[in-house]
Task: structure prediction
Amino acid sequence: MKQSLKITLPMAALLAAAVTTVALAAPVKADTLANMERERALLIETMLDGEITPAERQVRLEGAQRRLLDLERMVLRDDKLVGRNTPQVRRAFANYDLTFLVHASAEKNRAMADTWLAQLGISTQSVMSAKQGRR
Result:
């Protein structure tokens, strides 16, 4: 009898903790646009990371590109965004080439980094002519 009580008491405590956690947890809102923007930010961070090798950067970018492509498709097909007139949604569709980076890069037959830098007004020539210094 004591043996079965030792087994069920921890299980009951674990079950009670799980039920309490689920009951008190706030519902999570899965917003396709926010998810896509988060993934795009991670991709850009990887592009600019000076701490990784070019080979590692290429591997990370290939994986991030596939994930971002899927998220871009989800946003483009998200019917919930059609009726939303929030600043985030307006800005996203007004800046198509920055928002849908993978699609824009494919349409222009350019690398994602080139498309992103071109949208920001940064060219190879402007980078090469820049002077290093403090502001």
Summary: The chain has one domain: 32-128. Residues 3-7, 11-28 have pLDDT under 50 and may be disordered. Residues 2-24 form the longest helix (23 residues). The helical segments are 2-24, 32-48, 54-76, 87-94, 96-99, 101-108, 112-119, 124-128.
